[in-house]
Amino acid sequence: MTDKKFDRAVLDQLLTKRFFFAPSFNIYGGVAGLYDYGPPGCALQANVLQLWRQHFVLEEDMLELDCSIMTPAEVLKTSGHVDKFTDWMCKDLKTGEIFRADHLVEGVLEARLEGDAEARRAEQGTAAAATAAPVAAKDAKDAKKKKAKKGKVTAVKLDDAVKEEYTSVLAQIDNYDGAGLTELIQRFNIKSPETGNDLSEPVEFNLMFESSIGPTGHLKGYLRPETAQGQFLNFKKLLEFNNERMPFASAQIGRSFRNEISPRAGLLRVREFTMAEIEHYVDPENKDHPRFAEVKDQKLRLLPSNVQLDGKTELLEISIGDAVEQKIVDNQTLGYFLVRVYLFLTRIGINPERLRFRQHLSNEMAHYACDCWDAEIHTSYGWIECVGCADRSAYDLTVHAARTKEKLVVREPLPEPRVSQQWQLEINKKVFGPTLKKAAKAVEEALTSLTECELETLSKRMADNGGKADIVATDGATYEVTDNMVTIQLATVTEHVREYTPNVIEPSFGIGRILYALMEHSYWTREGDEQRGVLSFPTVVAPTKCLVQPLSNHKSFTPFLGDIASRLRRLGISNTIDNSSVSVGRTYARNDELGTPFGITVDFQTVQDGTITLRERDSTKQIREKIEIIVEVLKDLVNERTTWADVMDKYPVFTQQELE
Amino acid sequence: MTDKKFDRAVLDQLLTKRFFFAPSFNIYGGVAGLYDYGPPGCALQANVLQLWRQHFVLEEDMLELDCSIMTPAEVLKTSGHVDKFTDWMCKDLKTGEIFRADHLVEGVLEARLEGDAEARRAEQGTAAAATAAPVAAKDAKDAKKKKAKKGKVTAVKLDDAVKEEYTSVLAQIDNYDGAGLTELIQRFNIKSPETGNDLSEPVEFNLMFESSIGPTGHLKGYLRPETAQGQFLNFKKLLEFNNERMPFASAQIGRSFRNEISPRAGLLRVREFTMAEIEHYVDPENKDHPRFAEVKDQKLRLLPSNVQLDGKTELLEISIGDAVEQKIVDNQTLGYFLVRVYLFLTRIGINPERLRFRQHLSNEMAHYACDCWDAEIHTSYGWIECVGCADRSAYDLTVHAARTKEKLVVREPLPEPRVSQQWQLEINKKVFGPTLKKAAKAVEEALTSLTECELETLSKRMADNGGKADIVATDGATYEVTDNMVTIQLATVTEHVREYTPNVIEPSFGIGRILYALMEHSYWTREGDEQRGVLSFPTVVAPTKCLVQPLSNHKSFTPFLGDIASRLRRLGISNTIDNSSVSVGRTYARNDELGTPFGITVDFQTVQDGTITLRERDSTKQIREKIEIIVEVLKDLVNERTTWADVMDKYPVFTQQELE
Known about the structure:
Two copies of one chain form a homodimer.
Chain A: H1 8-17, E1 21-23, E2 35-37, H2 39-58, E3 63-65, E4 70-72, H3 73-78, H4 81-84, E5 86-91, E6 98-100, H5 101-124, H6 136-139, H7 160-171, H8 178-187, E7 203-206, E8 210-213, E9 219-223, H9 228-233, H10 235-241, E10 248-257, E11 272-282, H11 292-295, E12 299-303, H12 305-309, E13 316-319, H13 320-325, H14 332-348, E14 355-359, E15 371-379, E16 382-393, H15 395-404, E17 410-427, H16 429-436, H17 440-448, H18 452-464, E18 468-472, E19 478-482, E20 486-500, E21 503-510, H19 511-522, E22 523-526, E23 529-535, E24 546-550, H20 558-570, E25 575-577, H21 584-594, E26 598-602, H22 604-609, E27 611-616, E28 622-626, H23 627-638, H24 644-650
């Protein structure tokens, strides 16, 4: 299934009609970026999450948590979110309309490039199918930045130099901060796209929802932007729970919030969303994974950063074993998770042909990440980041430990004592204090925070400079330090315990995005009848497994419906009785749209001989057998112990009853 | 198991040590009323919710939703929460400490009564075991109002009249508003309990967390205080999804928030909590339930409001059929849910002897409820409201419909047209408009909003008053209406469709409270060794079903552990390998505390003959069989196809290996 003939509007209509989801507070006019899942969407989500729990938490014995959403400001200040989790916004000075500044610049420049291409085509008298020249490196990125409002495209030819400049700006649009965006807006004379009004200077907007905890109004809180922080804060208790053994992973499924400046693209960019996040804690000196051998032959389609930097988008199909060996993927643990993510996504029904793993370019990485691969799924919006697999290094545990003075480390007895040479600092208090007086504390803080490598450098600087060197203290001022105040030397150290801060490999799943992609990949229309949409969810995630319906409203059918439904329920097979007074054909069509894989019909023959028909959604083929047999067949189908093809081999196809 | 010897501190210590839950943001000092669930707490919760979904959603084919938490202020203004979802707080004028005013008054008066009792005992020279006289009606209520800070109890005898006055105030403490509480504080000279400082006048504090949606700062939002509103707003889509059939129910599991003034009592009164709510929509003229016959013989322990008003707490043990027939419980649907709630709670392990259903007194009811029964569970904190079963009547649907002009009604074709006499209003526009001029609209709005009964009254007033009457218009002013402007008369109306706003019966589950009560009910200590705590969760909700451990660290055991764990995993039986280097006895003790019902041990005999031991938590009895057999036995135990008693009958008890 490709999206060649795919019509998003038609699918959206189906999804709304069947209440997979709908804008929240719809009767109040709705709020952008907030959606409710209706019964089929909610069941689909529950099934996907259930499978996620099985596939990750149970399979790998992860430690699942359920943490608070409301988070005191101090925690998110430490994690960097208060300062860095921001976008730049600017305002139409007359209408007050607010734009995300980078999207705005991007949209306007793209519109101008399109206008240029149009003008050039007109000039050449050709109507070539190609529109604006694709910007390869940009095109390779995810579609979240797809233009919302870019204003009218007018056919105006640009100078070659201008065109080149626009293209170059677009290729690195993620690199501009507020000043940079201001400069672009001025240089390119960018106005509010629809009104042409002047724009305000971009200002920073924090994407977290703010609130206040308790009655005093003094304790500021934010709704968490990710579930990860709650996991990091519990690291010590988790390690203890795991009997101090490494490596291990924690996991959490839960709601997170981002107060987007201008949400769009349906379920893809929303203000409230369900995430499923894994934090795998690993020894920074050994990122091998004990189960890597089980996955090493699995091939994945990769888009490494160097390929993107060459302006290309060709995918590299390679086994994860080779990818790790060739250092394309940094380590076994990251590689292991890429495969596990692949297996999960394809199991729930994502088309493997429309799934790739793209490495982040350094300018895209979140403030905490040191390497990142996104599982991207192709949809009608382009390639969408659905699972981020980041190596957050020791960032989070380090900053929280520094702030709280709580040791967030692993202590491992060494098999034998380790003797090593280490650069060490000794402060000669008798001279240090009296010399520096009030500044002593600030200088001491600066010195004790130096790494070994920095100590070595400082020692060399002092040696080269007659035993003294300037140093910037924590009060911001510079002071001279001399070799009678401090001794810096290489000393022999014997350690019996190794103490380290673990690195964290984090696969982070955006459940809403995955569900939306799954709906697109599952959707098709019946040959020759494009009104008849089908959602071919795999049985394991289908919202309802079986429809139970009577051929008509005839009273004699009623007891059979209840009996069959309760048999199925006892086997844990979710089912719906549909006894609305419409034709069997219409009911089947409705359930095709709901993605229900199987349908049972009770008819007059049922009353005579206790047989019922079982219909499969994708083929619309049916069999007719005794109730007991059908129930058993269905049980095996739902539990994946048999396939519909096997069922077709074993039982005769039933065609007599005209249903379609 | 009673709580006779129950020591809450010891259980709390166990629950913290085993990380069932812990204060959120603990390394930052924590925030009152916010808790994280650790791995066993989280698994327990997931299992309870899974069972809830099976028991309610699947069994009754409810329409499950997953709605937004962030809610625009307008929605909660309409629902009444912005105005009425408040508590009264007052402040220590010197320290700034904030108290919930009713709790404060209650605590201080109770302390004085205790002091009085002490003084009287001392006077009589007796040291009777009884403390302050119990206040029956109050004692019957839930423990949420248990004193936090009541200040020192000093033995001061009170006048008999004062004592009586205190007792009477305490019995109706829920009835006081801000003015009432102010008056009490002055009259009884109530001061800040610990400092003795003066208190501020009580001010109203809204319990919803406030935030702002989007970048403009103009759209105020609140975190939802209940999941119900999202369900009501989707009523129209739900009814359509249900093929316009009544009755039906929607359901939602999710997080809700209440910014408590001073949270306490652990998991019982928190600021963020998981709820599971059902909204069952029913015809107000027929609240019978189609499946009532299935439950009518179930006996429940009820505490009706009239018993409480008599100052008594004796429970009435009665079948729900009789209770509904005798009008103790208002209708079948409410009765049906009380039984379903009872079955659910006892299935997950709540002790039926410590479970009762208490009817709300009229002064306790939430602003939207017209009748309410709480499932209360007895814990060391007293009787705790864990599931509220409220009849919210048509309140919510009516107010949202009025505010949004969206019809939230059911339209039912009548079996035959209904002819009736109805009071109707006709406006004579030619006279009405010109007479009232600018006020015409406001008067028309007032007239058209009159009910039939009010129209009849108005008609009489006009008839008695020479064909005219004063009426208050929607602009607040009074105008004269005459019988040449309007005609009010009894007309014959023929209806083919009946249109009505459904009533809503709402069972609302506080999952955290239920989990805490379950932990208390499941807890006991081994005979003769009070250090050895056990949590006897039913297998179906136990966080982990089976422990897999080696007898020692011997290398030959390792392959068996992995093999057994993967066999269990394939059967969906959650298990943990514990190969920490502690004795088997200590590992069993740890898993008793985690509530793991079964434990497998691999020992030297395993290596020789492939047999393993299986131990049951509560009895500590073991059997020894081949791995294949043990796995099958475990499968049947976990799926509740067999019991440990049956296993004991079938297989010989194994005693040789010394474990305890």
